[in-house]
Specification:
962 residues; mainly alpha; Four Helix Bundle (Hemerythrin (Met), subunit A); 4 domains; 5-stranded mixed β-sheet; ligase; PII_UdlTrfase/GS_AdlTrfase; ligase activity; transferase; NT_sf
């Protein structure tokens, strides 16, 4: 691949690596005009026959290239031997010119002629692939723009119109950056392309940028004139500066701050699409790339952006209307770029798929068209065969476009309209005219069919059959349907248009619910809570399976439907790929979250990204449970695994932000220990997190930073920062509620416990219940060495074993106090009360603590109790069965609502879910089973404690007789 000297290749277009610098001929044009071809061949008598054939065919079919070969014959002889080296030398020559040299324009035009000639021959001969051809054209565009800008600025410096700048500032454009847009930005310039540039200046480079602004504007105008002006020696590049913000009222060079404000306030979808390909190509390149980075939120939306499809289709229709490109395909005069099935169709297809998903997946933010298609296929957004087919058509279309432009150096994309034009084109391509016509027609129709289905699908296709408008609404409450028109989601005309197409499918889905009226009310709550509708309705229209899902949720989990109305972005996860695949595990989740956070620039956006990510996975678990893909126990493990991954991802982010102000953590750092249900790996859909933070300052008194803190204060505030990061209600909601009452000394103790103090407390002061809690304790996040020490210490505490009677007496007393304080338990209460799960957990923890087994939990702990001889097998079996039953009921209850479970209020769908997960035949049977199981469990626990926790008898005193 040619490399033009002086270009920063790290910023340049995505070119292929250089290959052997030999013009290998694999194909040849035919001379349409044999006499002209013979004239050109006679100019190079020294070349071999194969090269002579290439030159003859080229000159005999392209009057423009024939003229270039005659004008640059001496230079071409050497360039044919090593075309890449020749281009590189030409670039070095141009960059070495004095920017104030009056002949600079002439030399740039000479360079353009030479570049156009050698690139054309490398293209026509098959020696270079499309990417090498367009890359060489783009490289020269970058170089020319940079040289011309330097000339314009040098003139202003000479006139002392930029007093704050010196000649050294020319290397960074004196504050100006040129953004290459469109094909130039993507490294895809066509053969006779104009170049789309946006000229911006950095206001911060000047004390008063308003004084420098006129000189900067003149410099950009001179650059444009130097490139675009047609002289007797031709032109360099037609230069288009109209892609800048609001070009009808802004000068050719715009301040960066003003541009950023424009895009944030009134930027349009087509401008978002344009910035997919934007690249800083000259001037202050680094500052230009920084500017592009600031526009990332404008270009790449947080959620799947299906509303962009309609915008894209509107642009396509506007192009067709303005150009008159309607009706069937007719090859003569057909526009290979803008016409039916043309290049723009493929580019739009790739770009708007990128806009839809690129906000969520940074790997899709690719400038070039073919690599973008490839990546869309890899990530599952396009079928791989379709991506391959469109890439093949794109390459073929671009080749035809280049040949059309080579004939007369015309900036046209239209096939010859009459006479022998197509025959000349076929000759330049070395193809039969009839075969070329057939191939062009086939490809153009194939592209049109593939892309039209995306931009303008049949709106009736996804809708179920109905018997008319009345049938759609039959049986539903008219008052509910009528008030939909007044909701914010349907305030805009566009939202109402899309929703009207969705309405039949939605109502049909709600009618299939067990209780259609309940489902309608739940969907009404969902619709009422939507702040806007266009984006989500577009998402539904493009993905009809989401309509079925929301109807399913509304018919079963109304509370989840209400949640979705306020967090509709989680629907993205359903179509983001892999939504219904098996659970990946905590490690995979941690890696995924780390990648998500790595793409965010600052603390708040990282936390927001973590919240969005966690909500999507939380939603996924709930849907899997709802659809019966996982059992309640599996859902509990997945909710816990998600919380673990969140802590592992957020804890380092919190520490990094805290260290920015107060320095790195003193000593060995801090670990986060999960207690209770989190430590046991069992959470429900609405669990809070029981956490303890343990730190080891390792003798270091304070941190070392801009605002150092004593170690104790450092870790206390760091812990508070973690709690805030997890529980503060932000724009994206909150991650988790946090409970730290299980730390040493409870609410009276410090929020972060030092490692020596923790060891001392557990060995000298801890209550039995705190050692029982250790059976479920587990380090979730933090430095590995400290985590290993903490877990080894915890295992040592539990492994000591305990006197059975002493532990069970403590358990009995704890049970008594809870029953006095909380009562025997409300109906359908699964956690606290007689024979409920809290009591069973206490017995299981006692089993692990008495046996000295730090890994025992619930079933394992109860089995350990049997093994230790203080629980009977039938007692263990019933307690285990009761625990599973109550866990299933509780998991369903928390999925359905944040309130206490009441079968009378959860709807028919909720009751059906409850019966499915408990394998009960009816609610009456489940109620009876619940009461019998908990009553019997409570009695068994009492029997065990009465039997095994009796205080030891004092030894009888010996009688005097003895």
């Amino acid at each position: 691949m040619p490399r033009l000297s002086g270009i920063d290749q790290s910023r340049a277009a995505p070119h292929l690596p250089a290959m052997n610098d030999i013009l290998t001929i694999t194909r040849c044009p035919r001379p349409f005009d044999p006499d002209k071809g013979a004239e050109v061949r006679a100019l190079f008598p020294e070349v071999d026959s194969r090269m002579a054939e290439l030159l003859e065919g080229t000159g005999g079919s392209s009057p423009y290239l024939a003229g270039l070969m005659a004008k640059e014959a001496d230079w071409l002889r050497g360039a044919l031997e090593a075309p890449r080296a020749a281009l590189s030398a030409e670039g070095a020559r141009l960059q070495g010119l004095d920017p104030l040299d009056p002949s600079l324009g002439s030399e740039l035009r000479r360079g353009k002629r030479r570049m156009a000639l050698i690139v054309a021959l490398a293209d026509l001969s098959g020696a270079w692939r499309l990417e090498e051809v367009t890359g060489a054209l783009t490289d020269f565009g970058d170089l020319s723009a940079g040289v011309a800008l330097r000339a314009g600025l040098a003139s202003e410096l000479k006139r002392k119109k930029l007093p704050e700048m010196t000649e050294a500032d020319l290397d960074t454009g004196c504050g100006i950056t040129l953004l290459a847009m469109g094909k130039m930005g993507a490294g895809e310039l066509n053969y006779s392309s104009d170049i789309d540039l946006i000229a911006l200046y950095d206001e911060d480079r000047f004390e008063d940028h308003r004084e420098a602004r006129p000189a900067l504007i003149r410099a950009v105008r001179k650059m444009s004139s130097l490139l675009s002006e047609i002289t007797g020696e031709g032109y360099v590049f037609r230069t288009d500066l109209r892609l800048r913000p609001d070009p009808s009222v802004t000068p050719v060079c715009v301040g960066m701050e003003a541009a950023e404000n424009y895009y944030e306030s009134v930027g349009r979808t087509w401008e978002r699409a344009a910035y997919i390909k934007a690249r800083a190509c000259a001037g202050d390149v680094d500052r230009g790339e920084q500017f592009i980075a600031t526009l990332r939120p404008f270009v790449w939306r947080r959620h799947l952006d299906y509303a962009a499809i309609q915008d894209a289709h509107a642009v396509r229709l506007a192009i067709r209307d303005s150009k008159g490109y309607h009706g069937p395909l007719c090859l003569p005069g057909h526009d290979m770029k803008l016409g039916r099935g043309g290049i723009r169709e493929i580019e739009f297809f790739a770009q708007f798929h990128q806009l839809i998903a690129g906000g969520r997946d940074p790997s899709l933010r690719i400038r070039a068209t073919v690599p973008a298609l490839d990546r869309l296929a890899v990530t599952g957004w396009l079928p791989s065969d379709l991506a391959t087919e469109l890439a093949d058509h794109y390459r073929a279309h671009r080749e035809v476009e280049h040949r059309v432009q080579m004939i007369n150096d015309a900036q046209t994309h239209k096939l010859p309209g009459k006479g022998e034009g197509l025959a000349r084109l076929a000759a330049l391509m070395g193809r039969d005219e009839a075969e070329l016509r057939a191939d062009l027609s086939r490809r153009l129709e194939a592209v049109h069919e593939a892309t039209e289905a995306f931009f303008a699908p049949d709106p009736a296709a996804p809708l179920p059959p109905t018997d008319g408008p009345e049938a759609e609404e039959e049986g539903f409450d008219d008052a509910v349907l009528d008030r939909w028109h007044h909701y914010p989601a349907l305030a805009s005309t566009r939202a109402r248009e899309i929703f009207s197409r969705l309405r039949p499918q939605l109502l049909a889905g709600l009618r299939r619910a067990a209780k259609p009226d309940e489902a309608l009310q739940a969907f009404d709550g969902f619709l009422k809570g939507l702040p806007a509708g266009v984006q989500l309705f577009s998402l539904f229209e493009a993905n009809p399976q989401l309509v079925d899902l929301i109807c399913d949720i509304a018919g079963t989990v109304p509370d989840l439907a209400l949640y979705l109305s306020r967090n509709s972005g989680v629907f993205d996860a359903v179509i983001g790929g892999g939504f219904f695949e098996p659970w990946p595990g905590v490690q995979a989740l941690s890696v995924e979250l780390a990648e998500v956070l790595a793409h965010e620039a600052d603390y708040e956006t990282r936390l927001d990204a973590a919240r969005r990510w966690a909500k999507e996975w939380h939603f996924r678990i709930g849907v899997h449970h709802l659809r019966g893909l996982i059992a309640p126990e599996e859902a509990g493990a997945e909710y816990a695994g998600l919380a673990e991954a969140v802590l592992q991802g957020v804890w380092p982010v919190v520490q990094e932000e805290f260290a920015r102000r107060h320095g790195p953590a003193p000593g060995r750092g801090a670990v986060v220990m999960g207690m209770g249900s989190l430590g046991a790996g069992r959470l429900n859909a609405r669990s809070d997190l029981d956490l303890i933070v343990i730190y080891d300052a390792d003798g270091q008194d304070s941190s070392e930073g801009r605002r150092p803190l004593p170690a104790r204060v450092y870790y206390s505030r760091l812990t508070q920062a973690l709690v805030t990061a997890l529980s503060a209600p932000m724009a994206q909601g909150r991650l988790y509620e946090v409970d730290m009452r299980l730390r040493p000394s409870g609410n009276q103790g410090p929020v972060a416990t030092s490692w020596p103090a923790y060891r001392s407390y557990q060995t000298e002061s801890a209550w039995t219940w705190e050692h029982l809690a250790l059976t479920r304790a587990r380090v979730i996040a933090g430095p590995a060495a400290l985590a290993a020490d903490v877990m080894a210490f915890r295992a040592g505490i539990v492994s000591q074993g305990r006197d059975k009677g002493a532990v069970l007496r403590e358990v009995a007393e704890m049970r008594r106090r809870i029953l006095v304080a909380k009562g025997a338990g409300a109906p359908w209460e699964v956690k606290v009360g007689w024979g409920r799960n809290q009591e069973i957990e206490l017995m299981a923890q006692a089993g692990g603590l008495i046996a000295g087994d730090p890994e025992g939990w619930i079933a394992d702990g109860l089995q350990l109790a049997v093994g230790s001889g203080w629980m009977r097998e039938e007692e263990r079996a019933h307690l285990s069965d009761t625990y599973r039953l109550l866990w299933s009921i509780g998991q369903v209850g928390k999925l359905l609502s944040d309130h206490r479970l009441d079968p009378a209020t959860i709807g028919e769908g909720g009751r059906a879910l409850l019966l499915r997960d408990t394998c009960a035949e009816s609610m009456e049977a489940l109620d009876a089973r619940f009461e019998a199981a908990t009553q019997r469990a409570g009695e068994m626990i009492s029997q065990v404690l009465e039997r095994e926790a009796a205080p030891p008898q004092a030894p009888e005193e010996e009688s005097d007789e003895r």
